[in-house]
Give the backbone structure.
Amino acid sequence: MAIIKQYHKDTDTTYVYESTSYWDAEKGQSRSKRRVIGKLDPETGEIIPTGKRGRKKKDPDQDVRQDQALSALTAQISDLQQRILEKEAVISSQNAEIRSLREQNGRLQRIIHKVQMLCADESPAQD
């Protein structure tokens, strides 16, 4: 890797490039890939970075943070799944209780109806 300075007459600016050489087997000669680092300040000789283009470099800390976030989410998902199973068990037992109470209610309504019928039969006889 080399640092290349190239002067552009039309803009009166010197650009600084990072150059990487490689062998082009198809053409049988050495080639280079360049990446712009920035402009060269003519007064101070410092490199002034230009805009950040292209794909950003991966931050290894970001991978660690993503792994931690993924672990936290996985734990949260497991907890929520367990809570869902508990809620489903409660719902199932309550549905069974509702069925039982409906059967009991039906029996009691039939008994009440029979009692009302008996009371209705006895009341005209007393008059």
Q: What stands out?
A: The first helix runs from residue 60 to 126.
